[in-house]
Structures are given as C-alpha cells and as structure tokens.
Amino acid sequence: MLTNRQLGVTISITIIGLAAAYFLHIALAIGFSLGLLTLVALIRRRGAAFPDILQSMWEGIKHTKEVIWILALVGIVIPTWTMSGTIPYMIDKGLQIVDPSFFLTFSFILSACISMLLGTSTGTLSSVGIPLIGLGVLLQIPLPMIAGALVSGAFVGDRTSPFSSANRLVASSTGVSVHELFKVLLPTTIGALGATLGFFLICDLSGAWHQSVIGLLSQQFDSGFKYSLWLLLPVLVLLISILIRFKTRNGFLLSIACAIVISVTFQHVTLNEWLHDMWFGYHSSLFVTLQTKGLSNMIELIVLIGLAGAFNGILEENRVLQTYMQKLLGASSASLLSATVRTSLFGLGLGLVSCTQTLPIMMTGRSLLPFWEERFPRSQLARVVADSSLILAAMIPWNMLAIVCGTIVGVPVDHYVGYAPFLWTLPVCTLLWSFWWRDRGNVVGLRIKGGR
Fold this sequence. Notes:
Blueprint: H1 4-23, H2 28-45, H3 50-63, H4 65-84, H5 86-97, H6 103-118, H7 121-138, H8 143-160, H9 165-174, H10 178-206, H11 214-217, H12 233-243, H13 248-265, H14 271-280, H15 299-317, H16 322-329, H17 336-354, H18 358-373, H19 378-387, H20 389-392, H21 400-409, H22 413-416, H23 421-436, H24 441-451
Helix pairs in contact: 1-2, 2-15, 3-15, 4-13, 4-14, 4-15, 4-21, 5-7, 6-7, 6-8, 6-10, 7-8, 7-12, 7-21, 8-10, 9-18, 9-19, 10-19, 10-23, 12-13, 17-18, 17-19, 17-23, 18-19
C-alpha cells in the first residue's frame, strides 16, 4: 500500500506527464510512461515482487484488448469504406436528402437515435459519423462543430441505452437494475437533451451554411467511383452486427471484408492498392476531402492504451486507491449535493489518471456504495456515476474513450468538446438535481430500507 505522499506523487507525475505530452504534441505514451514507471518503482519499494508486478501489468493489458482491436480496426475501416466507394456514395446521397440549414441538429438527432439502438459510441460514430463528417466538410461547416454534434449524440446511447455496456456496468457497480437506472436518469437526460438541442438549433440558425449551397455540391465523387446500392452493404453489416450483439470487433471485421470485396468488384482496386491504403490511409489528388489515416497512424495510440492497461492492472491488483476513498470523501455528508460534488471530482480524478472509462465507473460505484446507502438510495449514486465518471471520460484528451472518438471523427478532443454540450451539461444537470434534493435527505433516509 502506498503512503499518501507516494500516491500523490504518482498521480501528479502521471497527470503532468500526460498533459505536457498532449500540449507539446509529443507521443502521449512517453508522458504516460513517466507515471507508470513511478508507480512500478514505488510499489516495488513497498515490497511487491517484480514478477508479480509484471503479472498484474499483463492482466491489465489483457483487459484493454477490445479497445485495442477497435482502434486498430477503425484505422482500417475508414480507408476501406472510402476505397469501396461507400463513403463517397453516402456523401453524395446525403447532399440530395439533408437540409444543410439544420445539419448540426440533424446530425445530433440521428447520432442519438442510432446510439440508443446500438448502445455504443464507437459503433455509432463509425457507422453514421464518418459519412456525416464528409458531408459537413463539403457544406463548409466547421469540423469541430460537426464532431461535437456527432459525439454528443453518440453518448446519449453510450450512457442511457439499456444495450450499452457502460450503462450496464453502472447498474451492476451500484446494485440497481437497468430498468431502475433508466428511470433515475430521466430527469438529467431530459435536461441535457433539451439544452443540447437548443444549442445546435442556435448554431444552425446563426450558421452560414444554407440551402442555396446544395445545388453547387451535388454529386461530388461520382466521376471517380462506380455507384450502386451494394456500396451501402459495409455500413449495414456493421449496424446489423452490433444490433444482434456481435462483438464490436467482429462487426468491424465483417464490414471491412465486405468493403474489400466491393472495392475489388465495383472500383477495381488491386490487392496492392488496398493493402497500401489500409496501412497508410486513402490519399487522392483528385478528391482531397476524402483523404484518411490508416492503421499505421494508430500504433502510437495502441501503445498508450496498452500502457494504461498495465497501469490499471497495478492499481487493481495492489488495491492502491481503495483505502483512500473514504478519507477523500469524508466520514459524513451534509447533503446529496456535497456528496455529488465529491463523487464527481473523485470520478474525474480517476479518469485523469487511469485513462479509461471502466475503472472510474467500477471503483466509484462499488467502493462508495456502502457510504451512499447510509444516507441516500443507491439509485442516486447510479445517477451521479452515469453523469460524471461515465461521461467525463469522453472529455479527457488522453482517455482511451476520448482518443477513439477523436480518431473516428478526425478532430482532437480539445477542439470539439466545446461543441459537445451533452457531455458538459450532464454534470451540471446532475448537480442541479442533487441540489433540488437538498431538503429531502431525511425523508429519503427513512425510505432506504424499503427502496433497496
């Protein structure tokens, strides 16, 4: 077990290293490795055997394999969809259908609806986000605004959908049913949805993208690709795979396979061409707006995720943080509002250090549940975790979830987060809702036994 000073040094070095690497535009893995090496050295000094440390690191890395798979496959799926003509076809069809005057509002609503069905932010951004990004670029809408609308919509389902793994993790970590969690999330969900819709409506009404532009933009790519309805198959395969609850990586693999077959059949892409583009990305002097990154651009991020997994493995195996949780939160809480503030800050701290969404949800929910049950219903803890630990991870530039989302939409997190109001209005809504409860603490306390 680390002392308070040792834990503080580890957390400080980790956050400073990550922040410095991010803002200096050097590899995040370099900044994060400083914190990892510090943690390993301090755990070793406290008596842990080096083979045991290595084993815990390996166990942590294994827990990140799904994220690594998805990130690698995102690096492949975007160029293969482009080579097959899927993305160009969807963009050209979108230009004929979508009213550009309300493009941001439309993007948010569509992304939110798809994410509620799929229950995954990465699947949503991959299936509808990629073509909408291309369409928005042609309409000359600022990329951060488009990315913000899409990410906002994607996290409606990532947080709220009963099909979401993050939603189910919140429910299991706080001991509530998925149905009960959905009900307790409704007030803050409605508040955040209303604020987000209003935000994008104002952006659309004050934007410079108008219906008159559409005539100049129709059929941008048909001269370079052979169009057919079959070009939609890779997207449909991905959507259906996620809907029937295939593993996300299997859905990506099936979609990539379909795109390769279509690119060979319709676009006559050679084996060397699609192998080159999958590794380096799609590049065309004729269609500059379609250029993408490839698998080679994901290596640095995959290394970071592996290091974060190793870091989390040490934290979990050695139970580094559990002892300090009650000390951090205090022995008592005067109100639900103060408990909400401290729990949210704790979840944010875990998100900053662990670089994951899973660990903050699990540790905040499971470890604080006894503390909460002494004063408030466990359902209120579930709400706070969903509106803080779950959602704040998407706003931390070096968090795995934020990295994956930023990679898919092609916009760094710090560029689009200001245009993703669903992410930052939820913590505000949950604080307001807890404030409304401030005078109900004693009444709720009498109901806890019956409400469990």
